[in-house]
Amino acid sequence: MAVTVHGRWMALLLTSSVCLAGPSPQPYIWHLPRGFPTPAIPPDNPMSDSKVALGRRLFFDPRLSVTGRYSCASCHDPALSFSDGRPVALGARGDALPRNAMALVNVAYNISFGWTKPHLRSLEAQMREPLLNSHPVELGLAGREESITAQLAIDPAYAAAFAAAFPEDPTLPVTFDHLVNAVAAFERTLISGESPFDRYVFQGDHAALSESAKRGMALFFSPKAGCSACHSGFNFTGTWRDSHGETGKPAFAINGVTAQPMRVPTLRNIALSGPYMHDGRFFTLERVVNHYFSLGPRAIRYDRRLPRTTLDMQQKADLVAFLRSLTDEDFVRRYAATAAAPASNSSP
């Protein structure tokens, strides 16, 4: 009899806990471009509509900075494919950061993050860097984690949004960890795959590319140019990670302007995300192409995959035309027009 009573009390306690926690949030449903795999999701940060909506709001909120005038979007502007148009990024206090702000397009498929850190393996870990870095200051929240979450917790709209996104923690939903997880969840939804290139390759629209872009595409994937030796795969990053795992190690290369290996960035929306290279030294795609095809024999000193040949003017123009065909204007319009709006019940 005692065992039965104990069992009933345990069942009641469990039922009470479930009620306190509230209903489970609506799972996030991916609507992916043709040819794109399902992204990998960390077991400890599952996707939901409410979490993505919260992360989107936080991404554009200047309260997440030491000055109250800077946000994640200050370095990652939707109109620029979530880059910032500067040679190197600037922190909340105006300090120049060491490197160019990488575009956030398709970061859901990254194996590592940042230009030089192959050990930085998740969006959640990466998010803590701009929030907490102090040399130089980016967003400048180091030592202010509790004050910023307290500020958000007294905002009724944020309190409700955190509670909906993290119902498993009903007594303390507004935490710094939850803030980080929400922004990371939003960033995973920044998937772009409706460019003219995609319409041509994945949707069979033969009119999507100009004749110049088609010639440039053939050149891009040819041994002569060798661009795809580094920028291969559906995301033009070499290796990637999806729900089935990683296709290899993080892709790094020595790019001909520095002896330090740099992560191979995606070329998607590349026409929008200049200046280029890790230090933003080239302001146009034409300058980038000229750089790589002027290395000649010197290329062997950097990376064996770099081209050691030259292209004529028409070939360079064709290659640039192909690179421009990787621009997904619908992706840019969607976020530029609704930058501060709550996320909808659909994947970008």
Beta fraction of the residues?
under 5%
In terms of per-residue confidence, which ranges show pLDDT below 50 for 5 or more consecutive residues?
1-20, 342-348
Give the oligomeric state of the chains in this entry, treating copies of one chain as homo and distinct chains as hetero: single chain
Instruction: Report the radius of gyration as a whole number of Å.
Output: 23 Å
How many distinct folded domains? 2
* Largest sheet entry: 2 strands, antiparallel
Annotation, overall tally of beta strands: 4
How do the helices and strands follow one another from N- to C-terminus?
Answer: HHHHHHHHHEEEEHHH
Helix content: 25-40%
- In the sheet with the most strands, the strands line up as 1-2
Feature tags:
348 residues, mainly alpha, Cytochrome Bc1 Complex, Chain D, domain 2, two-stranded antiparallel sheet, 35% helix, globular, disordered C terminus
Overview of this structure, please?
The chain has 348 residues and is mainly alpha-helical. The chain has 2 domains: 27-192, Cytochrome Bc1 Complex, Chain D, domain 2; 196-330, Cytochrome Bc1 Complex, Chain D, domain 2 (Orthogonal Bundle). Helix content is 35%, strand content 2%. The chain contains 12 helices and 4 strands. It has a two-stranded antiparallel ribbon. Strand 1 (241-242) and strand 2 form a beta hairpin. Helix 2 crosses helix 7 (176-188), helix 9 (211-220) crosses helix 11 (313-324) and helix 10 (285-292) packs across helix 11. The longest helix is centred in the N-terminal third of the chain and has 20 residues, at 2-21. Residues 1-20 and 342-348 have low confidence and may be disordered.
